[in-house]
C-alpha cells in the first residue's frame, strides 16, 4: 500500500490524465504561494472525493492491480503535505490482493512541489495483504510492482494492526500473521527495504526483523531475517539470497535457537538448543542439506548431525536423518542423595518432553552410537519413524542394553497438548539377565540370574502421567510368565502389576525374584512407588524356601499399610491359607488386622515350621503343639475399638483343632506386636465328641486320662501380662471326671511356663496319671485327690501334700520331678492303707496285658501295648499295710520301690510278711522298643515260710513243713502267657520237718511177713499192701532239692529224701502254661533186710504218680509193680528147681546130637571120594581122544602132497562123533602144554 500513496512525475507524464493532474498541483502550488494565507484553509473546502477516480487510476498504475478507495479522502499542504484516505481495496473487491483500513502519508514539501514524492511518514492502519500459492506452486500477490520505478521512497512507515494472509491453493490452507505492528523503511519497490516489528501467529507473539538489499537484474536480493518468540522461547535466523519471482527461492543458512526451561537452581541451568544448517527454500520444498544440532550449547562435545527435506504444497511431507556419536542427558546435581530419590527411570518418565511433531507427514531416521539416559545407556540406537502430521509411527527402534540385551520397539508416539504419548509393541531379549538387572538393583555375588537368558515382550503405553505394559510375556530361562504393568509418575506415583507365573521350582523362583527390585530394602522403591498394587498367581512357586501351590496374592500398598484383598495357597509346605489382611507398622513392630482361614495338614509341615520361626515360637511350645495338627481354623484380628488403631486388638480363633471344636478370644491391650509385654486376657474352650482322639492330639496318646465315651470339654481363663504373670484357671473334664488347675502362671522370655497352684483330680482310672509321670503302661485304680503343685516348665515338678482316696483305701505322700539330662526323673513316697495285687500287676504289666480268655491260666494281652520307650525314669517308694487279692490278705506289712525307665519297669526290693516268714521279690519287665516282645525276669526268696500258709489246702494236702527257697527266672514273649511258655530259670529249696502223709515205710516189714504169697490173688495182695502203707507217714528231718525252668516247664529232677525207714526219690515236672503236673516218686526201704528174701531193696518199689494241675493235683499210688515183684520173688525158688531139671535134659540131648553129626560126616567123605574117581576117568578118556585126532590130521596132510590115485570121494562127510576139542568129562587145560 506504500506504493499506492506516492506518485512520481514520470507516472503523470505518461498520459493526459497525469499531465492535467500535474498542472492542477502546480496551480494549487502557485495559488498556495500567492495566497499563503488561504493555503491552510483552502484544502479543507475542496472536495477531494471528486479526485477519487484520478487517485485510484494512479495507484492502479503503480501497483499493477485495480485500486479502490471507498472511504473519505483528505489533503492538507501545510505545514507539510499530508494525504489521508480510508477503506482502500487492491484488486477484486470479492477477492482483494490487499486492503487498508486507513492511510495517512506525509511528504517533503519542496520535493512535493517538484513532483518528487518523498514520503517522510506513512501510517497504515489495519492493512491486510493477501498472498497466494497456486496449484502449481507459483507465488502470486495480485499486484505488479515492476512499473513502480524509483520515484517512491519511504523514510519511515508505521504499520498498525496489520495482517498477512498466505493462501496455499494446493492444500486449501490459509496462514495468517495478525497484529502486525512495526516500522518499514523503503528506498524503492526494488529495494532495499527494512522491517522491524511484532506479529501474532498461531496464538503466539513474535519479534520480527527483515532486511533486504537491492535486487539485481535477475531479481535476486540478499536478505536476512530474524524471528524470535516474544518471551524468548526460541528464535530463527535466516541469511541468504532470495530470488523473487513467481517461483521464489531462498538459499542461505539457518540458525535455530531454543532456550531451555527456566531453572530454579543454578545447577539446573542449561544452554540453548542450537540448530545450524544450510537451507534451501522454495514454494514446494525446504531442504536442510547438512545440519548440526547441539541440544545443550554449553556441552559443545554433544553434537548431532543430519539432513532434512520438507516438501510443501498439497502433499506436504518431510524426510530427516539424525546421526551422531554419544548423546546423553545432562547430569544430575552432584549433591543429590540417590537413595532419597525415585528411580532414574521414573524420574525420566516424569521429565520426558513431548516430541515435536511437524504438522505434515514425513519420515525420520535416527542412528546414534550411544544415548546416555543417566541411569542407563542405549547403545547402537537405530530408529525408523514416520509421521502423519499428528503422531509419530515408530516402524523400528532398536537399541542395545547391558547383558547382551537387544530392545526393539514399534508403535506410535504422540504429542497430546504438550504431553508425550506412546503406544506400541516392545521386545527385550537378554543373554545375561544378571547384567541387565543391575540397571535397577545392586549387584550380588551369587546372583541366581548368572548367565540366565530371558526376554520380555508386550504392549507399551505412555499417556499423561502413566506408563504401562499390557499383554506382557516375561520369559526367564525358558519359563513364560504373563505380566501386566502400570507405573504412575505424576501427581500420584504408584505401581500396579499383574503377574501370572508358570510353575516354578525353588531355583526358578529365586531367579525371578532376583530380576525384580528389592521392594523391602530398597529405599528408592518406596520413594518411587509410595502407592501401588499387585496381583500374583502361580500354579507352583517358591515362597520363603517352600513351594506354594495355587498361589494367589492380591494387595494394595500405601505409605501407611499393605492391604491384601486376597492371599491364598492351596498348599504351602503343608499349610492352606486364604486370608484378607492389612499390614502396617514396621518389621520390628508390625500391626496386623484381617481375617481368613488357615489349614495345617501335619505337625511336621515345613510351612508350619516357617511360621514358628517367623513368630519366634519357642521350641518347647512347638513340641507341645505338635499333636494338635492337622487343623482347620478361621481367624479374625480386629481393633479393640472399631477404627481406632493403637487401642488394642482382639484375636478370635475358631475351627477344628486337635479333633475338637475350639473357640478362643484373646484381648491384647498392646496389640499383636506387644503380646509379650502388654496386658492379655485369654478365654478359650475346647469341645470334642471323641475325647480319646483329642487327648491323643494333645500329646496324651498313651495317657488314658479319662474313661468312657462322653464328650470332652476343656476351658481356660487367664489374665495378666508377660512381665507380671497370669492368674486364672483351666480344667479338662469328661463325664464326671475332672482334672483342674487353679493358680498362677508365669512365662519366661525363653518361653518356659512355670506356676504355683492347686491340682484337683477326680478320675475313674488313674492310669493316665501314671503315664503322665512317665510310667507308661502302668494301670492304677480310680482316685480322688488334690495336691499343691509347683512347676517350672518341664525342668521341675513338685506335688506336695497329696491327699486322696482310691476305693476304700486312703493314700498320701509327695512326688518330685527333676530333669536330668534329656529325661525327667521322678522320686517320691506314697503311703497307702492297702494295696491290691491286681492293681500292682496292672501297674507292672499294664491292664492290656491282663486281657485274655477267662478259662486260660495266663492272660494273652500284649505286654507291648505301647512300643514307644517311656519318656521318663523314676523310683517311688511305696509302703502299704497289706497286699490283698480277692478279699484275702496275701502279705502283711509290705514295702517296695516302683521303678521305671524308658526301657523297663520293675518292682524292686519288695519285702512282705507271710506265713511267719518273709517274702522277698524283685521283678522287672524290660526292653521296651519297636519289638513287640518283652522280657520278664526276677528273683524270689522265701525264708522260713510255713507251707500251709502259702498254698491252698487243695494244693498242699498231705505235705507240711517250713520252706526255705530261692528262685531266679526269665521269660520273653509278647504276652504273659507267651512269656511263661518261654520261661527259663533255676532255684533250690529246703524243707525242715518234712512230712508226707499216707506213705509209711513200715509197709515193707508187713509185706515180708506175708505167707502163701503164691496162693494169693494180686488184688488181695495189693489190698493188704495199701492198708499197710496208709498206717503211717513218711517223715524226714529235712528235704533239699533243686529245680530248673526251661521252655516254660519246671523240672524237679532226682529228688531224694532220706526218711525214717524209707527213701522217697523221683522227679516232678510243672508246665507253667497250664500248671499241669507230671511226676513219679518211688518209695523204697531204707536200712531194712528181709531174712526170707521176699522183700529186697532192688525190687521193693512203691510208686506214687502225680498228675492233674497245680490247682487240682491228683496223686495215685501204683502198687501193681510191688505186687508183681513179690509174686516174682515167690516164684523164683520154683524157677530155680525147674531150671536144674532143664539143664540135665539138655546134656542128654547134646550127646545124641553129636553121634548124629559123626554119621553125617562119614557119608559126606565117601561121596567126595567117588566124585574124584569119576573125574579121573573122564580126563583119561579126553586125552585119548585128543591123541587120535592129532594122528588123523597128520595122515591127511601127508596125503595132500602126492597125486590122488584113488577115486575122489565127493560125498558129504558129516563130522559126527569126531573128536573135536577136549574129550567129554576131560579137564580143560589152563596153560599151553598141559
Give structural notes.
The chain is 18% helix and 48% strand. The protein is an alpha+beta fold and 1234 residues long. It has a 57-stranded mixed beta sheet that branches. Strands 45-47-48 form a three-stranded mixed beta sheet. The longest helix has 81 residues, at 1120-1200. The relative contact order is 0.02.
Q: Spans of 5+ residues with little confidence (pLDDT < 50)?
A: 1-18, 34-42, 147-151, 1202-1234
Structural class: alpha+beta
What is the number of helical segments per DSSP (H or I, 4+ residues)?
A: 20
N-end to C-end Cα span: 188 Å
Q: Average pLDDT, to the nearest integer? A: 82
Query: What is the chains' assembly state?
Result: single chain
Sheet of most strands: 57 strands, mixed
Number of strands: 60
Tell me the fraction of residues in β-strands, as a range. over 45%
Query: What is the alpha-carbon Rg in Å?
Result: 70 Å
Bulk shape: elongated
Portion in helices:
10-25%
